[in-house]
Structure formats: structure tokens, C-alpha cells
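The instructor's notes for this session suggest beginning with a concrete chain rather than abstract definitions. Hand out the sequence below and ask the class to guess, before any prediction is shown, which regions might be ordered.
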Amino acid sequence: MTMTKSARIAAALCMVFIATGCGRVENASQAANGVAQATRQAGNAVANTVQRAGQATDRVGQAMGDQAAVTFRQANDIASHLVRSGYASRAIAFVMGDVAYVAIQAPSAAGSEQKNKAQISAYVTSAFPAIRKVYVSENPDVYARFQNFQRMMQQGHPVQGVWQNFKTSVARMFPS
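After discussion, reveal the predicted structure:
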């Protein structure tokens, strides 16, 4: 009798596991994979929407005649030139029209001659004839802010928005 009772209890437990889905691992992992895929698709959709919104904002800025935002760009060529030439250990540059804004970290004093801002400006205007005016800063706070603008550009933020923030900051960093 006890064997029959044990068999009935075991059979009942098996039925409970089957009915509740506890014994079906593949169904659970399929559901988890479905949720993960839906999450990835939603994330991609959001990223694509943000990118399209940024592009639309840039087009609106162009249509509204903000030519400064149209010509605003990160100038890796100028920054890398300054580093290769020994004017800076690290540099970030942005160009708007014929004006370059440069934030540098000066090279270490050991074995290198410290260049002043006028020398750096003269070097940039001679190496890049389209540049007529250069603003240079060795301030670590300015460099950190330029890194933030650089990161925003790399992440695909709308140029119009980055330009507006940049323009406001530059007015404070490089007063005329």
C-alpha cells in the first residue's frame, strides 16, 4: 500500500510541475530570450529616434539660417598637428568658420620648450591657412569642458545643440 501511495504522490507532483511549467526549462529560456530581444529592439528604436531627431534639429538650424552651427566642427586635424609638433601633450580643437578654439594640456617641462599661446596661434594659422583667428587655453577646466563637447559630438548629439552650449561657454572662457 505504501508503495502505491508513494507512486500516486510522485505522479501528482509530476503533474503539478508539468502544469505549472516548472519542468520545462526550454520554455522559460525562450521567454527570457524573447524579452531580451524585445528590450534590444526597443533600445535600438530609441537610439535611432534620438539620432533622427538630432539630424532633424541640424536641418532646422540650417534652414533657419544659423550658419555658425552648419560650419561648427571638431578639428581633429588641428589637435593632432599640435601634439605631433610638440606644442601640446594632448589637444582638442573646434572650428567655427575661420576661427579655431583650442584647449591643450601643455607638454611636460622635461626636455621640451614651453610654447606660449601666441606661438601656438601663429603655428595653427600658418599650418591651416583657412584659420584666421585662434583662441588657445591651457586651463584644465576648459580642457575638461572641451572633452565634454567632444564626447557629445561623438555620441551623435545634434550639432545645433552642441553649438549653442559651446557658444555660451566660449563667451565665458575667451572673453573678448
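Then share the key points. Residues 55-65 have pLDDT under 50 and may be disordered. Residues 13 and 19 are 10 Å apart (CA to CA).
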